[in-house]
Amino acid sequence: MAEIITVDDPDDPRLRDYTGLTDVELRRRREPAEGLFIAEGEKVIRRARHAGYEMRSMLLSAKWVDVMRDVIDEVPAPVYAVSPDLAERVTGYHVHRGALASMQRKPLPPAAELLAGTRRIAVMEAVNDHTNIGAIFRSAAALGMDAVLLSPDCADPLYRRSVKVSMGAVFSVPYARLESWPRDLAVVREAGFKLLALTPAEGAVALDEAAPQGLERVALMLGAEGGGLTTGALRAADEWVRIPMAHGVDSLNVGAAAAVAFYAVTTSRPE
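The chain above was modelled as a monomer; its predicted structure follows.
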């Protein structure tokens, strides 16, 4: 059973995992370096635990102690009970959901290991907006994608905003980072995947013409908002594909485009 500790000092060093949560640059550096991430809200905390992430501690306002009682009883990590005002002073924002947990990260698998046994994967290049990362992971989970590969400069899927937007789906879709981009795309091709680059560029064929649902193994490549996939990534692809547009619209937000494309590559896929 976890120990419940009442804390009334925002500078208490035991609360260090939760300090400055609104400082994006600080948290982007600190969290991977210290091997932690923050789960926000009851559902996300429970999903992180269900996915096997070890809890370092919880930060709860008083009314959430009873709600999280079963977790408190099961986990030996300390629970810090604080007032809503103190939680805001520590984190830098009003913690609407009243429950935060500091979780221990797991080592990421090598890309080749992740690819074994998968048939439908997403490959993201330089997607550095945490909202988009979370939305893409949520769609990947909902639409049956098997895994996600990230270029070295993609945003952190376990950053608090990404986790929140995904509603914890980042915990259910395996992912890995490629170390060298775009050279390591060769690892994907060697595993038997056809690399499809999603782009509105001239020369791209419509998704239904490419018939990705009939392919044995598909890697769908997605670029960052605005610029899309780089020239190097496009050159590394086996085929360029696009989502047909109407009413003069040239493209979709990458999160929306990902959902449409995931559905196209997973619907009626070969058994």
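Residues 216 and 271 are 9 Å apart (CA to CA).
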